[in-house]
Write a structure and sequence with these properties.
Helix content: 10-25%
CATH superfamily of the largest domain: Bira Bifunctional Protein, Domain 2
Mean pLDDT: 84
CATH architecture of the largest domain: 2-Layer Sandwich
Number of domains: 3
Number of helices: 14
Strand content: 25-35%
Distance between the termini: 60 Å
Structural class: alpha+beta
Low-confidence stretches: 287-291, 293-323, 422-426
Strand order of the largest sheet: 3-2-1-4-5-7-6
CATH topology of the largest domain: BirA Bifunctional Protein, domain 2
CATH class of the largest domain: Alpha Beta
Number of strands: 24
Shape: elongated
Largest sheet: 7 strands, mixed
Length: 617
């Protein structure tokens, strides 16, 4: 393994660099902006420079931190760590000029930093503008370091106190470009790392084997990076798979269990009674590829993403609401129809617990815990009539015991059943609200955590139904559906569902195979950007908010975290209705700059007018 290369910028008296020299396995390159003659006049600088050179470190003078690649040959540009302590434009430069300095510095650093390298920036208390600063300055009066770094593709991965007293021989200097010290009490060291690139794509195509025929369809834009991710593959170390495995193991100790995952199709056909059509991802197949109704019967199904077109704009080929025929296809919003098919076909053994699992897809409004795709596990259990209540309680007790055994994270789950009533349903989350559309629910499975987790209090993570559909049968079917993604979030302290789908390898590195751990975010205090959009809705037309939210998800690559209606009025004479929405853009895992958010807003405005039939104001 080679030496760890460390670059230090803007050194004053070189005392910080001298404290690092001699570290085993480290090669130090210490630089300053001044000439050697000017730098040597600072108190103690000559001694530190001599010590650095004697230890084998490089000392370079007259280095401009905004043009770093000019000072190093291509083979010398792979620094593992870059330090810039207390940057400043000098004299009485204000916050705007210092933001500009940081922006140029970060862009320059990106050209000489190793792929997994770090950039350390120490700032005086309050300058950074993050919640870590105490007290925290107003945003406009800070250096806005996280937003500035995002412009160069960096995210803030750690922040901790800059303890000058623990650095041997260190003495701060350079106050207003003079050989004077300054106060570093409460100073913070900000550690930045590279972000994965922002997504830029349009729908790809998905090929599915249905009986003997292969069919393909265009994947909705919002789902392109979520089809065929393999979270539930046997060797997956994703927390969603770990939760499923533990639940399966726990249930198998109490019931004979049969896993039927291999025969589930991604596509359903026809109408789904009780479900609002605007909540469904409708799929249009090419006429020559459309299978018959017989070919849509459950059979081996495998989804393969075989093409992805990389450009930013595109449309979702949905059939307009109200035009859905019995032959129309849609991405499955639930595994319940598969379970009901097992029941109707009699392909079951009384007393055996059947387990189905896989991703399901639902159009929904944007909230931190509402997902257009999540992994569902559904159990089906046939019991004798009159015993269903005791069997439901036994099932819930087993789930509760299993989840309690998973609190290696330090988060203890508390499970409780809520009987389904109209008053309670409105208080539960969107997952429960959609489940209510699928049919009558007997119980909601709710979960709280101790200490309180990131999801709302009493989050609904599952539902239980019973069915007496088989006429003349003494059997009652118990269906229990669980949202594996919500369970993983609660158990691992993950505050944003989008993190489950991040391509950043730092997420899965935190979860060894078969283990759940408390998640530590690698992107702290991500900046948010607010934009408004106003438009006219034609007279007599109903505006589909779910379609609007889905479009915002797709165009922004899930960067819109909030959409709020700010104003609404009807114009006299024309009958047109004006709507004004406020959108908040924020990423949980990638660097999103002010410019990047503005570009997303512009694309969204174009697509709103083109796809939703409104007129921009």
């Amino acid at each position: 393994m080679g030496l760890r290369r460390v670059l230090l910028l803007g050194e004053g008296n070189f005392s910080f660099a001298a404290s690092l020299c001699g570290a085993e396995g480290t090669h130090v390159v210490a630089t300053c902006y001044e000439s050697e003659e000017d730098a040597s006049r600072r108190g103690g600088a000559a001694r530190s420079i001599r010590r650095l050179r004697e230890s084998g470190a490089e000392v370079v003078f007259s280095v401009d931190c905004t043009k770093l690649k000019d000072y190093f040959s291509p083979e010398e540009r792979q620094f593992d760590c870059i330090y810039f302590n207390f940057p400043h434009c000098g004299r009485k430069a204000g916050v705007v000029k210092n933001r500009e300095l940081l922006a140029h510095f970060f862009r320059s650093s990106a050209e000489v930093l190793a792929e997994e390298g770090e950039v350390h920036v120490a700032l005086c208390n309050g300058q950074g503008g993050t919640p870590a600063d105490q007290p925290r300055r107003e945003w406009h009066n800070s250096w806005q370091i996280v937003a500035v770094a995002a412009g160069a593709g960096f995210i803030l991965s750690s922040v901790h106190p800059f303890n000058a007293e623990t650095i041997h021989g260190y003495k701060c200097t350079g106050y207003r470009s003079q050989d004077k010290s300054f106060c570093v009490d409460g100073a913070l060291n900000h550690i930045f790392t590279r972000s994965t690139p922002l997504r830029c794509f349009t729908p790809g195509s998905c090929k599915i084997q249905l009986e003997s025929q292969k069919v393909s369809f265009q994947v909705p834009q919002v789902l392109v990076d979520k089809i065929n991710r393999g979270f539930l593959e046997p060797n997956s170390n994703h927390p969603v798979q770990t939760v499923k495995e533990e639940l399966t193991a726990g249930l198998s100790q109490a019931f004979p269990l049969q896993d039927t995952d291999s025969c589930l199709s991604l596509l359903h056909q026809g109408r789904l009674d009780g479900v609002c059509p605007s909540n469904i991802f409708w799929i249009a197949l090419s006429p020559e590829e459309t299978p018959s109704a017989e070919e849509m019967s459950p059979g081996p199904a495998q989804a393969v993403l075989f093409s992805r077109v990389d450009f930013c704009q595109g449309t979702e080929k949905n059939v307009p609401d109200g035009c859905h025929s019995p032959e129309q296809f849609y991405l499955r919003p639930s595994l319940l129809p598969h379970a009901q098919a097992i029941m109707r076909e009699g392909a079951f053994l009384p007393g055996t617990l059947y387990l189905l699992s896989g991703p399901v897809f639902r159009k929904c409004r944007i909230t931190p815990h509402t997902m257009p795709v999540f992994h569902e596990v559904l159990t089906v259990f046939a019991v004798n009539r009159g015993t269903e209540s005791s069997c439901v309680q036994m099932l819930v007790n087993n789930i509760t015991t299993t989840l309690h055994s998973l609190h290696q994270t330090g988060i203890k789950p508390n499970i409780n059943l809520q009987e389904s009533t109209s008053s309670e349903t409105t208080e539960l989350n969107d997952f429960a609200a959609f489940e209510s559309q699928l049919g009558k629910i007997q119980y909601f499975i709710c979960m709280e955590t101790d200490p309180p987790g990131s999801c709302e209090k009493g989050s609904c993570v599952g539902v239980i139904r019973t069915s007496h559909e088989l006429v003349g049968s003494e059997l009652v079917f118990v269906f229990a559906s669980l949202n594996l993604d919500l369970l993983a979030m609660l158990l691992c302290g993950i505050s944003d569902w989008r993190m489950l789908w991040t391509p950043d390898t730092r997420f899965l590195r935190q979860f060894p195979r078969g283990e759940l751990r408390l998640f530590k975010s690698f992107s702290l205090y991500p900046p948010s950007y607010v934009h408004d959009v106003s438009f006219w809705v034609p007279e007599g037309e109903q505006f589909d908010e779910v379609a609007f939210h889905t479009l915002a998800r797709g165009v922004s690559g899930e960067m819109v975290v909030s959409i709020q209606l700010r104003d609404s009025f009807q114009q006299a004479g024309t009958g047109q209705r004006s709507l004004c929405y406020r959108l908040t853009f924020q990423s949980c895992d990638r660097a999103l700059s002010c410019r990047g958010a503005a570009e997303m807003q512009l694309r969204l405005r174009q697509e709103i007018q083109r796809q939703l039939g409104v007129t921009l104001r």
